[in-house]
Every structure is written in structure tokens, then in C-alpha cells.
Amino acid sequence: MSLLSVRNLVIDYAETRALDGADLDVAPGEKVGLVGESGSGKSTLGSAVGRLLPRTARRTGGEVLVAGEPVFDLPPAGLRRLRRRQLGFVFQDPIGSLDPTMRVGAQLRLVLGRGADVSMHLERVRLDDPRVARAYPHQLSGGMAQRVAVAMAMATSPELLVADEPTAALDSQVREEVLNVVFSLAADAGTSLLWLSHDLPAVARRCDRIAVMYGGRVVEHGPAREVLGKPAHPYTAALAGSAPAAAAHGARLEPVPGRPPVLTGPSPGCAFAPRCALAVDRCHHERPGPVRVRHQDVLCHRAGEVTA
């Protein structure tokens, strides 16, 4: 049984469709990387897991189940219980995710309860300076603030941690340190991890599976090495080919041509068709269903014809 199950989820913001029938599963203890260009729907999907979407968002179809609980159908008390016991979140902006009016130690005690050993939880994220607990968020560096956010998210050992580009605002050295903390804490607690990222090589190194999003749908998912090493969807191949960190020295990068779509309703065909070199007439007019290629599940009429 999946810990997280997203089925045909449709989310609209006013006239814009952010998720157009997204499907995703995360098993207990699994580490899944969710990748794709900006505007692909990653953050909307991540927020939907905990029903943390803004008020302008409307769910017009599909469902999200966490540990068998229907997230969008829970009453307020049930939703609070689910977030407290099963879910943890780490967001892009570490300073913005913390309360600027409260000291770090006080914020941790709100999560852990009065009398909790705050210093122990800070030491777990490699913040062993006692001054950190007495500091306000603005007195911390970005890397320190993000470690505090990780400590708060993992304080209750949630079953699922959703990390939405948690290192995007950090420099490269601090980025690796924070990721090491996130993944080691998750491994120690047996916590499943859904990591939203643009860093394809890092996702390939750290995750069990990769899910690739485009146009509000997961267009390919499977084992990390298979998805990036032998992609079966043209978009995955184009995305992998445009990643600077994955390119060989002296290799010429090929950017993905065109721009991601801005949907106003369900895509009539494959949303990637206008940018795809393999597209044929049916790609523009017939919505692709899932097919199995090697170890990957792919939404593409020409899946398997891709050469990476």
C-alpha cells in the first residue's frame, strides 16, 4: 500500500490549470524526486499533499490519500491531526517559513511541547551552538535557518516529508550540507521523502525513484537511474540534455526548445507536443495514456522511441 497516493488530481487557479490529472505514489520509506521546469506543477502538487494550497486554488477533480486518509475530504480537526502526525514540510525560503516574532527555541517547543529538549533536536541538524535557540530567525544565516526548519519538520518523525526545493536559496557548499541533514534524518526515522528539485544529478544520486512533471501531469516515473540514464519520454530526454551539472566537460548543452504551456483547461493532447521533435498529428489531439517502457511508466504516444 502506498503511503502517498495522488490520483487524477486537477487544480485550477482562476482561469489557469496548474494540475491536469496528476498521478503519483510514494511507498513507505521511499525517496522520490519530483523534477520539471518552473510552471510544471511541482509546487502545486507538493502543497496539495497537505492541503496547503492558497485560497485561490480549486480542486476540480481527483484525490490525495495520505496513509489512506482522503486529504481534501478531512474536517479541520482531522486535517490538523494528519499534518501533525504524518506530514512534515520544508519550503524554499527558510526565513519566510519561520515566525519572525519568536525565538527559535520557542518555535521548536510549539512543535514538541513544553519541557522538550530543544538542544537535542538542534544538534541533530548540526546546530550545536546554544545561542541558536535564543536567536530570532533574522539573526541566522540562510543555511542555519533552513536547518532549523528541517529540525521542526522532523521533530515528530513524520511518515512523509515534502521538501520543496529546500536548498534553492543556498550556496553550493551549504546546499550539500543541508541535503545531507535532510536525507540522514529521514533515513534514521524511516520517513518517506518527496523532494521537489531542479537539480537532476543530485536527485539521481539521492532518490530511489524520479517522477518527471510537465503540463500539470507526471509524464514519466521510474527508478532514478533508468529515468535519467535511459529516458522514455521526449521531455525527460530534453530535460536531462539541458542540465549543466550532468553534461560532460566540453559538451554542448541543448536547451529545451520553446516554453512550457499555460493551460486554461484540460490539454486536448500531449502538452509537450508543440515543443517535441517526435510529435505526430495524434500527439496534438489525443491525450496520451500511461504505457510501460522497461521499468518506467510513461505518458507518450511514441514512448520508447527516444534516444537519450
Automatic annotation (TrEMBL):
One of its GO terms (biological process) is peptide transport. It is a peripheral membrane protein. It catalyses: Ni(2+)(out) + ATP + H2O = Ni(2+)(in) + ADP + phosphate + H(+). Keywords: ATP-binding, Cell membrane, Ion transport, Membrane, Nickel, Nickel transport, Nucleotide-binding, Translocase, Transport. GO terms for molecular function: ABC-type nickel transporter activity; ATP binding; ATP hydrolysis activity. Residues 4-240 form the ABC transporter domain. PROSITE patterns: ABC_TRANSPORTER_1, ABC_TRANSPORTER_2. InterPro entries: AAA+_ATPase, ABC_Ni/Peptide_Import, ABC_transporter-like_ATP-bd, ABC_transporter-like_CS, Oligopep_ABC_C, P-loop_NTPase. Its main location: membrane. Pfam families: ABC_tran, oligo_HPY. It comes from the Bacteria. The complex is composed of two ATP-binding proteins (NikD and NikE), two transmembrane proteins (NikB and NikC) and a solute-binding protein (NikA). Belongs to the ABC transporter superfamily. This is Nickel import system ATP-binding protein NikD. It comes from Nonomuraea longispora. The lineage of its organism: Bacteria, Bacillati, Actinomycetota, Actinomycetes, Streptosporangiales.
